[in-house]
Amino acid sequence: VLRCGLGRPAELTATSRLLGVSGVQFLELAGLGTGTWVAVDRPVYVVVALPPASGSGPLQQIAAVIAKTLPRREVDVPH
Known about the structure:
Blueprint: E1 2-6, E2 18-21, E3 24-29, E4 35-39, E5 45-50, H1 57-69
Antiparallel strand pairs: 1-5, 2-3, 3-4, 4-5
């Protein structure tokens, strides 16, 4: 499942651990029963939910499309 234009995730803080995939910074949302990742360095937040056993391939493919389509910006964290 891919969703765009959601609000900033409450889990995104100045100390959040981010994962860089194909030039896109993702925040993992734990405890949702799926592999849920939020692209946090684009003009809109993009949420990707994948089956836990899907591996890294699908996230890499989606990240490549995000990197080509949406310009990068600084990660917006509350101060």
